[in-house]
Design goal:
lipid transport, seven-stranded antiparallel sheet, 14 helices, PH-domain like, 13-stranded antiparallel sheet, alpha+beta
Length: 699
């Protein structure tokens, strides 16, 4: 029931790594909108050990178990709590959410929108000025001069008009610019000496100034929503959002138009203004596009991520970022620094897992269900090595909603294994197999083509869908992945939530599979990637399954990147194949008849993907969308890359806000929602089924 209720009782509260979990007595005060806790019930009459304001808070049940939940206050403080069972957790969560909603709504209803304030933010001097000296009394407060002008008592604060919102946005834009200047001044300080860029007070100043600007942006968004709710009923259809920026037409507003109001925007590179002016995706054609493989050219990009220079130079930025993160914190909404990015989108990374298409196509050539399952396991385990670019752990671009990536692979039919024990991977990584062509330059029928398409179908949560097919062999794979990242101290963990299904239509078989977790280790020194967790592959029709364990390195001893697994027949519980080795080195397959096969992943042939040139790509295809970020990273210009990246992210936030305010649902282009998953709109199994039905009818 949705009624306010004061509740109290014991919960376990996570304190820190040393102390761990402790029982504390919690009290929910609905009237005040507070969650308080005491050492025990007997000390309830004393001052609380801790208090959280619930207005603006987020109450989140944890997915790690059925007892844990978190309370994230608007101030940034977080309580991680654990109830005795799932029923008690649900009771606390529902009461807290009702109280939070009540007091959050009261802010917009009862408080005046905003009092007149003038902001004057100035960094005290420049980092390049020799006269800057640190005084004993100098602290974070001296860097800012914020003046508050109180209105005469008894006078009613007028409702803020649209022009006032424009003025506020202009003031905030100036404040953001000065805050960036402050950060830049601190980071330009020498690495050693009396006052350095790693000074603890300055790091704290950077964090608090950034948090202040984030808070102001959140408050401004509340003001926008408040005005939207007040004026929604009185404005004609189609103009519910035009008041936000009255100097811009509604059509241009969908182009992140607020940017052109500010003089600072004139100095932005043309490419940044272009990124901000791309029309809202739903305004473009969302009809699926048929990509002609003949327009695709062999990819010549080879961006290995082995450069550690930027990471070494930006150590202070990493320290600053770590100072703001909490153990177990969800990193989905955390903006990570640009210098740790790979030069490709996450959607393209999924495509790179298909860099051995000969092994993929060879699966359906297996002589029986047992061999086909073993071949799928072999392909699965060999896909992760090429999916990584270099030894340094870097993060691919977060795809924006509506982003797509297309590519294909071509290989001679003679390079694909057809019989048990034969291998298509006998070429060195640098060796490319020549494709036969006819007189007109077209690929002849004795080549297989594997086509790939990926789309970012959701932003929160971040979900990607991808699909690949080989029409000649009647096989395709469909998958959706939700990437959930968490801060783990000196490493970052990424859980790949989702499922993939391989369809072998020639045999009527479906193989379901999941993906392992990924970890970026040693993020303060030389970051490296590790896979971990257990994955399962199942074929319900044949009764064969595979269980694969990616082992993380133990604290003492042990090997890196170790993987073990087994394939078995479920009906007889008979193990028909065992595999062990390293997923980025050598794998050993041992069969039930005693035979052994070794696969050296470093010597497997790599088929380069084929991609359309940038000029033929749509504005929301990955490489064209991120081209300016990629070019800046290649040139080593981190500031310019950050500016381009920020423009894309800001446009996405504005578009998401507009869709929420106008209640416009997002429409995907290639993938359709199917229960908890996403399915390609025109999968091969539907095409083949329709063709067979048509042939039957004609007969």
């Amino acid at each position: 029931s949705d009624h306010m209720e004061n509740i109290c009782g014991y919960l376990m509260k996570y304190t820190n790594l040393v102390t761990g979990w402790q029982y504390r007595y919690f009290v929910l005060n609905n009237d005040a909108g507070l969650l308080e806790y005491f050492v025990n019930e007997q000390s309830r009459h004393l001052k609380p050990r801790g208090t959280l304001q619930l207005a603006g808070a987020v109450i989140s049940p944890s997915d790690e178990d059925s007892h844990t939940f978190t309370v994230n206050a608007a101030s940034g403080e977080q309580y991680k709590l654990r109830a005795t069972d799932a029923k008690e957790r649900q009771h606390w969560v529902s009461r807290l959410q009702i109280c939070t909603q009540h007091h959050t709504e009261a802010i917009g209803k009862n408080n005046p929108p905003l009092k007149s304030r003038s902001f004057s933010l100035a960094s005290q001097g420049s980092a390049n000025s020799p006269g800057v000296q640190r005084r004993p009394s100098q602290n974070a407060v001296s860097f800012f001069n914020v003046g508050h002008h109180r209105l005469p008592t008894g006078k009613r604060v007028p409702i803020m008009q649209p022009d006032h919102l424009v003025d506020v946005r202009e003031m905030m834009s100036q404040a953001e610019g000065q805050q960036r200047d402050l950060i830049r001044s601190i980071e330009c300080l020498p690495a050693s000496g009396h006052l350095t860029s790693l000074d603890q007070d300055l790091l704290m100043l950077k964090a608090t100034s950034m948090a202040t600007m984030n808070c102001l942006n959140d408050c401004f968004h509340i003001l926008q929503l408040q005005h939207a709710s007040q004026q929604k009923g009185s404005l004609p259809a189609g103009t519910t959002i035009s008041w936000l920026e009255p100097k811009i037409s509604l059509a241009n507003h969908f182009k992140n138009g607020a940017a052109q109001n500010f003089p600072a925007e004139i100095n932005k590179p043309a490419s940044v203004r272009e990124e901000q002016s791309i029309a809202e995706p739903c305004q473009l054609t969302r009809e699926p596009e048929e990509i002609n493989p003949d327009e695709e050219l062999e990819d010549i990009c080879d961006d290995k991520e082995d450069d550690l220079g930027a990471v070494e130079e930006q150590r202070s930025v990493i320290l600053h970022l770590l100072s703001q993160l909490k153990l177990g914190m969800d990193l989905t909404r955390v903006v990570l620094p640009t210098f740790i990015l790979e030069k490709r989108s996450l959607l393209e990374m999924y495509a790179d897992f298909m860099s051995h298409p000969d092994l993929f196509v060879a699966i359906t050539n297996g002589s029986g269900p047992e061999e086909r399952m073993i071949r799928f396991v072999e392909y699965y385990l060999t896909s992760f090595h090429e999916g990584r670019k270099g030894a340094i752990a870097k993060k691919p671009y977060n795809p924006i909603i509506g982003e797509t990536f297309h590519c294909s692979w071509r290989m001679p039919k003679s390079s694909v294994a057809t019989e048990a024990g034969t291998s298509s991977s006998v070429h060195s990584p640098s060796e490319q197999v020549a494709l036969p062509k006819d007189a007109e330059g077209q690929v002849e029928p004795d080549c297989y083509t594997v086509k790939f398409v990926a789309e970012q179908v959701s932003h929160h949560p971040p979900v990607s869908g991808f699909y690949a097919e080989c029409v000649e062999r009647n096989m395709c794979v469909n998958a959706h992945v939700w990437t959930k990242s968490k801060f783990l101290g000196m490493s970052i963990g990424v859980t790949m939530v989702g499922e993939g299904v391989l369809h072998l239509l020639e045999h009527g078989e479906e193989y379901t599979f999941s993906l392992p977790c990924a970890y970026a280790r040693s993020i303060l020194t030389v970051p490296w990637v590790e896979l971990g967790g257990k994955v399962n592959i199942n074929c319900a029709k044949t009764g064969y399954s595979a269980s694969i364990n990616f082992h993380t390195k133990p604290f003492y001893g042990g090997k890196l990147h170790r993987v073990t697994g087994e394939v078995k027949q479920n009906m007889t519980n008979t193990v028909v194949c065992r595999v062990q080795g390293e997923w980025n080195s050598v794998l050993e397959f041992t069969y039930s008849n005693g035979d052994t096969k070794y696969v050296d992943l470093t010597k497997l042939s790599v088929t380069r993907k084929r991609v359309r040139p940038l000029e033929k790509q749509g504005p929301f295809e990955s490489r064209r969308l991120w081209q300016h970020v990629t070019e800046s990273l290649r040139d080593g210009d981190i500031d310019k890359a950050t500016e381009h990246k920020r423009a894309l992210e800001e446009r996405q936030r504005n578009e998401e806000r507009l869709r929420a305010e106008t209640e416009t649902p997002w429409c995907t282009k290639y993938f359709l929602k199917d229960g908890d998953g996403w399915v390609y709109h025109k999968p091969l199994w539907k095409t083949v089924s329709a063709a067979q039905t048509q042939q039957t009818d004609s007969n």
